[in-house]
Amino acid sequence: MTHYADGPRSAASVAIRVRAADAADLDRLVLGNRDLARETEGLELDPAIVRAGVRAVLEDPAKGAYVVAERGGEAVGQLLLTSEWSDWNCKRYMWIQSVFVAPSARRGGVYRALHAAVVARAREAGDVAAIRLYVERSNERAQRTYTALGMARSHYDMLELPIA
Q1: Which pLDDT tens digit goes with each residue over 103-144?
Q2: What is the CATH number of the domain that holds 72?
């Protein structure tokens, strides 16, 4: 993918490199997802289940694609991209999911670089109607970040029917 220079808030002032994840990232992605669930929802995810879920994405591009941000060769952020087909406009919606930035790297341009890479990927694809994500209602900091990057509240509410 593309390299993005870090913003002025970074103490290190080291470039952020955004790239597609691969099998070598499995452990880091699992750890990031578990840290995300613990931090945002107070959930302790089963490591074996998360590992199987991440591996499934890494092995089957139809399920999605992980994107990793690195600073100085160290993974500092990640997200999962999935896709939803829209018959109404004959285009896809790209969904940003499982966003995690290491606490020590926050407010340093990591998510901004990930977001820019996703936007570039969507524009290059040519068949993407919009980029969507869902965010915890109480996570106001994340909401401010997303709106600062041009995202806006949708006119849809998300409903769910758990299937056990």
Answers
A1: 999 999 999 999 999 999 999 999 999 999 999 888 899 999
A2: 3.40.630.30
Query: CA 107, CA 78: separation in Å to the nearest integer?
Result: 15
Is residue 91 within 8 A of residue 129, CB to CB? The reply is yes
**Closest to 113 measured CA to CA, from 11, 35, 24, 15:** 15
pTM for this structure?
Answer: 0.87
How many structural domains are present in the chain? 1
Domain membership of residue 162 (yes or no) is no
DSSP state of 130: E
Distance CA 134, CA 147 (A): 12
Per the domain annotation, does 154 fall within a domain?
no
CA angle 89, 85, 59 (to 5 degrees): 155
- The rounded percent of the chain whose pLDDT value lies above 90 is 85
Structural domain boundaries enclosing 46:
3-148
- Specify burial of residue 81 (Cβ count, 10 A radius: 0-12, 13-18, 19+): buried
- Residue 122 domain-assigned (yes or no): yes
Q: 157 in a domain, yes or no?
A: no
